[in-house]
């Protein structure tokens, strides 16, 4: 299956209530999938924190009684994580401290607002050694 970014690979989707009580589930899933792609321990921890930061940016925007959806796509050395909540609010903007943290931890970060949902997408690739 190919997604809108032209990637293909294994897809995992989790839906949890949009409250901070369930963020540990998403952090753990992110860590487990990154380990499956042979990310370093530092990169796994960075991704766990990035997923937590993305969720923290989205939770205040979520509609009441909403579910937070987290989609993981494993594609070669890259793990893409798209976190979204139903919301009519605007997406988070680059330039904030939280956005700077996300970019430093995940590398490629984008936010979109479409079809009644706000989504933050992170892409992190493991470093492939030359030897």
Care to describe what's here?
By secondary structure, the protein is an alpha+beta fold. It contains 3 helices and 5 strands; from the N terminus they run E-H-H-E-E-H-E-E. It has helices at 23-36, 41-58, 97-106; strands at residues 10-17, 67-75, 78-86, 108-114, 117-125. Strand 4 and strand 5 (117-125) form a beta hairpin. The N and C termini lie far apart (31 Å). The relative contact order is 0.21. Mean pLDDT is 88; it is low at 1-7.
What is the compact description of this entry?
With about 130 residues, this protein is α+β, with helices and mostly antiparallel strands. It is about 30% helix and about 30% strand.
Which structural class matches the secondary elements?
Answer: alpha+beta
List the total number of helices.
3
CATH topology: Heat Shock Protein 90
Approximately what portion of the residues adopt beta-strand conformation?
A: 25-35%
Largest sheet: 5 strands, antiparallel
Overall 3D geometry?
globular
Could you state the order of secondary-structure elements as H and E? Answer: EHHEEHEE
CATH class category name: Alpha Beta
Tell me the radius of gyration: 14 Å
User: What's the architecture, going by CATH?
Assistant: 2-Layer Sandwich
CATH superfamily: Histidine kinase-like ATPase, C-terminal domain
Uncertain ranges: 1-7
- Helix content range: 25-40%
Overall pLDDT, averaged? Answer: 88
């Amino acid at each position: 299956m190919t997604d809108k970014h032209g990637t293909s690979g294994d897809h995992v989707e989790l839906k949890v209530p949009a409250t901070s009580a369930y963020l540990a589930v998403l952090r753990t899933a992110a860590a487990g999938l990154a380990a499956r792609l042979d990310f370093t321990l530092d990169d796994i921890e960075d991704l766990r924190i990035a997923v937590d930061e993305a969720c923290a940016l989205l939770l205040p925007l979520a509609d009441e009684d909403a579910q937070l959806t987290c989609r993981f796509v494993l594609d070669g050395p890259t793990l893409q994580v798209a976190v979204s909540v139903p919301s009519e609010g605007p997406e988070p903007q680059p330039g904030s401290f939280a956005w700077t943290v996300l970019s430093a931890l995940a590398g490629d970060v984008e936010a979109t607002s479409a079809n009644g949902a706000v989504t933050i997408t992170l892409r992190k690739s493991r470093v492939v050694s030359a030897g």
